[in-house]
Amino acid sequence: xxxxxxxxxxxxxxxxxxxxxxxxxxxxxxxxxxxxxxxxxxxxxxxxxxxxxxxxxxxxxxxxxxxxxxxxxxxxxxxxxxxxxxxxxxxxxxxxxxxxxxxxxxxxxxxxxxxxxxxxxxxxxxxxxxxxxxxxxxxxxxxxxxxxxxxxxxxxxxxxxxxx
Length: 164
Ligand code: SF4
Ligand code: SF4
What we know:
5 strands, binds iron/sulfur cluster, UPF0260 protein ISM_11790, three-stranded mixed beta sheet, alpha+beta, two-stranded antiparallel ribbon, Puta_zinc/iron-chelating_dom, UCP006173, 5 helices
């Protein structure tokens, strides 16, 4: 997943020096790389395992997190070299976004902008702090279970509700 941060020691996403409210004036495919990375709110939901119904195509998110997800920082523990450990982890960009929308969380900034919706006030680009995501109850910090503790057959016991 494409993520990045920086308004505190636990936030690796750098949001300094960006054009003011660039997300309201610039299409996703015209953003600079730093702007694109700054859109990620750090909720951690894209690092959750999903259950997909083969018949309906519906996707449910579970609280069962990827083996590299750090539940305390709500970040990938090895983001720069994650593909060495999790080769299936996606790299999200404007070209691949559409193919992933069906499973992405409803609060994800990339999905919101794709849908023509505004960012929430708790988004760090608006609030000025990554903590607002956790305070709003949107993030998965302290809310996951590691995948090595839960067998795939039991994932359905850990489905989480998504805001609509
Ligand atoms: S779901 Fe979206 S906003 Fe949340 S961590 Fe993943 S890319 Fe970032
Ligand atoms: S490797 Fe796992 S924890 Fe890291 S970004 Fe990908 S899904 Fe998230």
